[in-house]
């Protein structure tokens, strides 16, 4: 087979390079949100096998997973500077496009004869590849008219092994899949080892890219370049170099624009990429119901914290008094406003659930939670027909407890009433059989086991039923959506 490349191979090749740069950079942004990799699913502090941070967590005061986060430079991460919400948007939108490109490429590979380049048809490819390796190790370049066996094997491995493995380990990190098919996650040794394997696959991709580029240079730079850019080694080399460099410049430019727009107009990028990512997320999770039930042995010995307790005098004095003066206010579009004390809540029918908490930053922990189904509270307060959303207001003023994020106001999150009525949506006052510890949300916190961690408001003060959430805060449906550009669609 002549080594000429048809147009579709050349196009999918360059599009692939573009998407891989976006995927690698946004993936690094996500990794920066929890810059530690584990082989255990409990993410025990100190048990990371690899860390990308020098920060040591203090032992004399409480710290949160936000303290562990690293701000990465924007030339490396997309978009860098602690924009996890946007990094996730880029990663998920790009992976959809990457899968599409891959399907087109593999489809055409088999629709034409081109698969013969990549897929060895004889076992002799292994000994032949070994011989080729020896030639390289003697610092010679093997003579060839076609892909040599080593080349064939490595290209086939990248297309048919490494790329699918990247997708499979990516899927194994999805809390939505963990909640539906826990056995799938166990195939990879748990969510955290899937995360480690996903990172190692990135290194494999990077290593392949370096060697592949070096080989093209060593072998036949002008001819190889002319082949992959213009399709034939006999094409005009100058033209190939100019067009090829324009291609690389476009990839660079798209990266620059993606980064610049994300940093300058984060709300625009949150919404624009949300148009792709959020519906895809809904479709991909529709096939079965999320329901978690872990055995008691799975409970994590240490449960990370995110979001410090309120520090204002009114809240701290309530805490000092075991929350005897605290009331949960239920208000808004309802017939019966409620003011419930902790004792009253404890007297309502309760429910326990042992579930895995998934923080958007990347860590996860299992605990047992006990409390009152939100559904029971809704039945008691009797919502008006116009009520569509429940707003959970907290006591912690984030400007006081988390000033460096730059967000104003008290923590809050909004969910729609269907979500509020789900089986595993409860107001928890106990964790692992003991009263809820202050750092985990005392006196009362929301648990919505079908959502990512940030939706589960701690230090609850009030539940307000509303018709629309756009007039609340910055109008995005929650404090972290407002300030950190997280997606509102974080069903798991
Ligand atoms: N009031 C309040 N609730 C909050 C937060 C917060 O900052 N304030 N952080 C959220 C985030 S991002 C996570 S991951 C979980 C963490 O719960 P934990 O501290 O019990 O682990 O709480 C959520 N609820
Ligand atoms: Mo979180």
Tags for this model:
Sulfite Oxidase, Chain A, domain 2, 492 residues, five-stranded antiparallel β-sheet, binds molybdenum atom, five-stranded mixed β-sheet, Fumarate Reductase Cytochrome B subunit, alpha+beta, 2 domains, binds the ligand Nc1nc2c(c(=O)[nH]1)N[C@H]1C(S)=C(S)[C@@H](COP(=O)(O)O)O[C@H]1N2, 12 strands
CATH superfamily of the largest domain: Transmembrane di-heme cytochromes, Chain C
**How much is the average pLDDT?**
95
Q: What is the CATH architecture annotation of the largest domain?
A: Up-down Bundle
Q: Look up the CATH topology of the largest domain.
A: Fumarate Reductase Cytochrome B subunit
Q: Radius of gyration, Cα only, in angstroms?
A: 27 Å
Give the CATH class of the largest domain: Mainly Alpha
Individual helix count = 17
Q: State the total count of DSSP E strands.
A: 12
**Count of domains:** 2
Main-sheet strand order equals 4-3-12-7-8
